[in-house]
Amino acid sequence: MLNDYPQVVTIAGSDSDGSAGMQADLLTFFAKKVYGATIITACVAGNSFGIHAGVNMDADFISQEFKDLADDFHIRAAKTGMLADADIINTVADNYEKYNFGPLVVDPVIITKHGDMLLEQAAYETLVQRLIPLAEVLTPNFFEAVKLSGLDPELHDFQEKAAYKLQEMGARNVMVKGRHDQKEQETVTDYVLLENGQSFKMTEPYYETTHKNGTGDTLSAAITAELGLGKSVETAIRSAKKYVDACIKNGINVGHQFGPINHWASN
User: Fold this and answer.
1) Which residue, 31, 33, 108, 252, has fewest beta-carbon neighbours within 10 Å?
2) Are 102 and 122 in contact (CB under 8 A)?
3) CB–CB of 259/118 below 8 Å?
4) pTM tops 0.70, yes or no
């Protein structure tokens, strides 16, 4: 039957070293056995030492990508990654509302897992106003949850309180990822709040390694793939978490400094 194979799309930037961005998303889609399409929003030049140059796609080009996919494919789930400015975020939101691309997983690329801000204030505010209310699943890292919720990270049950705040902002299901910056850290705990009010935690060993580039991209891509396969949100999140942990634990020796995770680890 035409278009019966599960198809998903990543709406994100291209990372030339392949460790993150849509390259990590496509590797994840391949591993999860879904067909992955792309809507490129930016291109960056970099390697394991860092990012050294970047260019953004213009709004008309991004809109044309949406139209071309909608005209030909049956996209069953979508995800966003790095959306560099307010114009791009508005363009993505407008087109997602226009076309039926299934549930949206929003990886709010606002702050790095080390706490460094990635978006200017105007773009941040646009993401909050336009994109988060479209999210079937929102996957902020710990510092992004702090920024979005406005809560003190030292609060008891911070992740739970932050997740409720993010639901109030419009996201239907929220996964607040755990910290990765503690001394002598042994575990990482993620907190998930579902649309129906149920919640759960996932605690796994912390793996000390310099090869963790693209973990957030990979997690959100794995959730997207599972949703594209028709899985429930809870099943998709649990499966994605297990996949990412395997990719980190069973590393791959690529790059001199901060390298990628191993997307083939669980196969």
Assistant:
1) 33
2) no
3) no
4) yes
The residue type at 177: K
Contact 222, 79 (CB under 8 A): no
Residue 1 lies in a domain: no
Question: Does 144 reside within a domain?
Answer: yes
Q: pLDDT per residue over 69-119, tens digit each? A: 999 999 999 999 999 999 999 999 999 999 999 999 999 988 766 556 778
Count of domains observed in the chain: 1
182 secondary structure, DSSP code: -
**What CATH number is given to the structural domain containing 94?**
3.40.1190.20
255: left (phi over 0), alpha (psi -120 to 50) or beta: left
Distance, CA of 213 to CA of 257 (rounded, Å):
10
Contact 167, 127 (CB under 8 A): no
Q: Is residue 267 part of a domain?
A: no
Token pair, residue 222, equals 């794995």
Residue range(s) defining the domain that contains residue 92: 7-249
Render pLDDT for 184-239 as a digit per residue (tens, 0 to 9): 788 999 999 999 999 999 999 888 888 888 899 999 999 999 999 999 999 999 99
* Residue 95 three-state SS: helix
- Does residue 260 lie within any of the structural domains? no
| Beta strands, E only, the chain | 7-15, 35-47, 50-56, 75-80, 104-106, 137-138, 173-176, 187-193, 199-205
